[in-house]
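Progress report, Aim 2. The chain analyzed during this reporting quarter is listed below.
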Amino acid sequence: SNFAIDFEGIPNNGTITVNLSFSSASVTMAEENKHWNLIGNPYPSAIDIEALYNHANNANVLTGSFYFWTHQTTYNSEENGKYSADDYAIYTVGTGGVAAVPNGTVPNGYISSGQGFFVEALQAGNIEWNNSIRVNNQNNLFFKSTEKNKSNLEEKDRIWLNLSNENGAFSQILIGFLPESSKNYTPKFDGIRMEGSNFLSFYSFKNDKKLAIQGATALQGTETIPLGFHSKINESTILKVAIDKLEGGLKEKPIYLFDAKTNAFHDLSKSSYEFTLEKEGIYNNRFSLHFTTAALNFEQVQHQKEGLLVTKNSDEIIISTFKHTSIKGLKIFDLLGRTVFSSNHANTEVKLYKSQIQANTIYIVQAKLENGKTIRKKVFL
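Predicted structure tokens for the chain:
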């Protein structure tokens, strides 16, 4: 609800220095929880996030991501259901922002007066505020409710995806394809997914980091973006993956979600994708995002010529070729490119025990044949 607050005293003006806490590596806590700082806009005016980040040495001491707690209490069960969507709205300087709640506000690059937020320190040091980062408007966006506000960012190649159910659980991610970004984690473009008290936590992967916002490199159309999520819903529920918004060249492209459990692609640009989840858990190897079915077509062509055949029994996984060609070397990779199994024993089939790899996961199987050719297959094991 809206209410009035009286402030007494002299408003802040000019240069202000704020010390950022940075915990040593010896501190006993999860690595991703060591360096967070809760600060706030000290001025009676809005400030420009990018100006704050780029000012002086600020970019050397903090990442480019700003986290705004958004609390949405549970609606009447007849209207919304039993799951609230309390989470962090996030703005990453190089890529953009994501909402915290269904139909919620996406940060627009400005921080209103009195607004608190979290930042992550890269090292011990101070950040400096001064009047150059202040603006004389944009002071009507405060993260405490779900009022909408349009972003004034120019269009880039960006896609926002939502994971939700019909009972109010919700999580949003952003993937931007930016020429100035990198294939490696970059604090200016990549925003870490901070776990809130929400029932769903949706993220993409880059260098093993779980990202709410990812700045990928310029769009080629052949990318595979691994996706994961954490569900705290400890009962059977129907979840939905849907496009919230598209910008730039992505408006003209099909957007495919690959489900490793069903071994099928779904065109999200035509409709959302629904699936049933039976229990809570972390699901990091089921979904990936694609912009072409070339990988699927390649696999179909290979089946007509020489392709891989993967069969399973109660204890083993057996990998062979359709023509029973000798396999000189075989490797199995997860969607993050890590080798999870390797064999160099030449044979017409390679066997491994199910206990050697994580079950119910999507993998890339790569086999080097006796004729020197290499063939690959995406499988769900």
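Confidence is low (pLDDT under 50) at residues 26-31, 75-79, 144-153, 295-304. DSSP finds three helices and 28 strands in the chain. These observations will guide the mutagenesis work planned for the next reporting period.
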